[in-house]
Design a protein that fits this description.
mainly beta; 1 helix; 8% helix
């Protein structure tokens, strides 16, 4: 993605993104474009601005995946598989999020 903003109407398929609401201890809920749980137990988050950050497991209280859907983004009868955030309000929230769901975690 090269630092470009992640589009909630056209989520990456390779690798496939999983948007989520992450409850971060001491900070509240953060809406991210993607998350991955690493073998070490740390969680890698990708913000909507395509910035990545890793958090230790003790900072994560909960992860709730956001519903997504596949749809035909093709034109002129050509099928083009695309993936987007399923709910209009959540797509708008991600699109309007100038902070990119910025994750700021203070030291322990």
């Amino acid at each position: 993605m090269n630092g470009e903003k992640v589009d909630p109407e056209d989520l990456p398929l390779h690798p496939e993104y999983t948007p989520a609401m992450i409850q971060v201890r001491g900070q509240g809920v953060v809406y991210v474009a993607d998350y991955q749980t690493l073998e070490s137990g740390w969680v890698r988050l990708t913000e909507w601005r395509d910035r990545r950050v890793k958090l230790p497991p003790h900072k994560i209280e909960a992860i709730r995946e956001v519903r997504t859907e596949y749809y035909d983004a093709g034109t002129d009868g050509e099928y083009v598989k695309a993936k987007r955030v399923a709910h209009d309000e959540q797509r708008e929230e991600a699109s309007a999020d100038d902070s990119g769901g910025k994750v700021v975690v203070a030291g322990d």
